[in-house]
Amino acid sequence: MGSPTEPAPLVVAVTHELEPDDAVLTGLAGGGVRVLRWSAVRTVSGGASELREAWRRLAPADWVAFTSRRAVEEVFRAGLQIPAGVRVAAVGARVVGALEAAGTPVDLVGEGGGDALGRALAKQVAEGTRVLFPAAAGASPALEEALSRTGVEVERVTVYRTERVVVDTAACAADLAAGVDAVTFLSPSAVESLIATLDPAGLGPALRRVMAVCIGPTTAAAALGAGFRRVHTATRPEKAAVAEAVLELGPVAAAAQRRPIVTRSE
Which listed CATH number (3.40.1190.20, 3.40.50.10090, 3.40.228.10, 3.90.1170.20) goes with 45-162? Predict the structure, then answer.
């Protein structure tokens, strides 16, 4: 009897703009996954003048809240520093790490997403406190909603936005024909962009049979709304957790033998 055949590696398409140290890319590569680059969105800076104006209004009793590393980078790219007496709240290890690497101590760390950070922050501040929230255009309003229920004033400043990128439909068609086990999404806009490109090319049905691995419930809802038949959500809203969620699919993908299966997980 011959030796058992080695299982084929997972084949995963990533749809976000990749950085050299991207935690999804490094996590998947470390797990032996074959990564396909289907970049469907890119991030563009914006709102620096509005951010500087909001910064000038910060008082010692105020807070600044961060829910993304990119927002941290945009603040420091604008040449701004946290004023003395202003406290900092952040969610996620990568966001906290970016702040600490810039020499900014974090006063409150939230576990989970913006909603969890908002609830934790609401316990620390008095009614009427102002929280400045540098964020992406279209970022979840969960933090603002959690704080507004306690009378805290939240000022959101858009410091970056995502733009649609047209993926190579011929390459995607070849990839789908060869077999793709999962596609990762870090935002609802990535779902919308990929669908908008592949549907007109007739690739929508094949795409929707692939497992969608999403960074959080908002993105998962967008994938379900777009018609994906199998949606898996990372346990926490971080890139590293997306890679972990993909690696968990190894046995699922092997058992499915890349046949369409209808499952939904939150």
Answer: 3.40.50.10090
Cα(226)–Cα(242) distance, rounded to whole angstroms?
19
What residues contact 247, with CB distance under 8 A and at least 6 apart? 10, 27, 28, 31, 33
Token pair listed for 147: 């704080």
For 214, the token pair is: 């999403």
> Which regions of the chain are under pLDDT 70?
1-7, 251-266
pLDDT score for 251: 61
Token pair recorded at residue 195: 């669908």
d(CA 186, CA 24): 10
**Alpha-carbon distances of 225 from 59, 155, 198, rounded to whole Å:** 42, 30, 16
Query: What does the pLDDT read at residue 4?
Result: 56
Chain centroid, CA 176 distance in Å: 24
Task: Report yes or no: 217 and 236 within 8 Å, Cβ to Cβ.
Answer: no
**Residues 157-176 pLDDT 10s:** 999 988 899 999 999 999 99
d(Cα 76, Cα 98) in Å, to the nearest integer? 10
Percent of the chain with pLDDT over 70: 91
